[in-house]
Design goal:
Blueprint lengths: L5 H10 L1 E4 L6 H11 L3 E2 L13 H9 L1 H10 L3 E5 L2 E4 L3 E3 L2 E3 L2 E2 L2 E3 L8 E10 L7 E4 L5 H11 L2 H4 L5 E3 L1 H8 L3 E3 L7 E5 L3 E6 L4 E11 L7 H10 L3 E2 L41 H13 L1
Parallel strand pairs: 2-4
Antiparallel strand pairs: 1-13, 3-15, 3-16, 4-15, 5-6, 7-14, 8-11, 8-14, 9-13, 9-15, 10-12, 10-14
Helix pairs in contact: 3-9
């Protein structure tokens, strides 16, 4: 399968984001995934944070290892998957009783490393449909000095009572960082990986669009290479994945924490702590993924 080159990893560490073309090149597979993922799509708040618990297509993507192996190459360490929201819309949304056709989400950083108990947070945004101008980034905000300078000038988070992430004033960002704006057009199957430090925003588009986003983090303490720590998380933290330590875990499976049955679709944003089902329960999407991955 496709692997990240050393030059790509160096580019990610330098810039804080990396566009990878053709992560999922099979168009028929993408077509098959769309109706399955749209069952739990959302456009703003992450109501469905752990959709692999009840969406077979999300589980199939994770089981196939395409995204998780890339994340392992970028984190260079065992890590855990914290959430995997499905971002999608039909091209419009309701706001204050009016139908909006396009717009911008807020400038923000997901989880700046100095504000949370992790050494690294990395997200991937996999385009399931074509996604022109899907995300914008502010170059340089991978580093603390540049990011803190922007936070000092433009931070709006205190008005919102937020912790962890940081929401920035868009007019202020336009003045302070206009020359450092970066964005890319994505085709279906392309992916962009970015560090939790990066200041970025999503674009709401006036046509249907769909993407799967996966956020991974490397715990700060205890040291993630310690196998006892991995085993503890395997039993206690049900959203944990450890690709680089897979041979040490039960059954040699990086997704060793599993359950036997599929959960019902949730009706609220409640965090449902549960485990992945075994591979035999993943259904048609997983079988299709297995064939496609084998041919890459």
């Amino acid at each position: 399968g496709r692997r990240l080159q050393a030059s790509e990893i160096d580019s990610f560490e330098r810039d804080g984001f990396l566009v990878v073309r053709g992560v999922l090149p099979d168009k028929s597979l993408l077509q098959e995934l769309r109706p399955l993922l749209r069952q739990h799509q959302q456009i703003t708040d992450a109501v469905y944070r752990w959709p692999w618990l009840y969406n077979g297509a999300v589980r199939a993507v994770l089981r196939a290892g395409i995204l998780t192996e890339f994340l392992a190459a970028l984190t260079k360490s065992p890590y855990q998957v914290d959430e995997a929201p499905i971002w999608g819309s039909d091209g419009s949304w309701e706001e204050n009783g009016e139908t909006k056709r396009f717009g911008l989400s807020a400038w923000h950083s997901d989880l700046p490393s100095e504000m949370v108990g992790t050494t690294s947070v990395i997200s991937v945004w996999l385009a399931i449909t074509d996604a022109p101008h899907a995300l914008e980034f502010i170059r340089g905000t991978r580093t603390a000095e540049t990011r803190h300078d922007l936070f000092r000038q433009c931070n709006m988070s205190w008005k919102l009572g937020m912790r962890g992430g940081r929401i920035l004033n868009p007019a202020c960002v336009a003045r302070a960082a206009k020359e450092r704006l970066a964005w890319h057009d994505l085709e279906a199957g392309d992916a962009v990986f970015f560090h939790g430090n990066m200041v970025h925003r999503g674009m709401r588009w006036p046509r249907p669009r769909l993407a799967l986003s996966v956020r991974a983090s490397v715990p700060e303490k205890p040291h993630p290479d310690h196998i006892d720590f991995l085993r503890h998380l395997c039993h206690e933290n049900t959203v944990a994945f450890f690709p680089s330590a897979a041979r040490e875990l039960p059954r040699g499976d990086p997704l060793a924490c599993i359950r036997e049955v599929l959960l019902a679709r949730p009706n609220s944003a409640a965090r449902m702590a549960d485990r992945l089902p075994p591979e035999r329960d993943l259904g048609a999407a997983a079988r299709l993924f297995r064939r496609v991955v084998a041919s890459l």
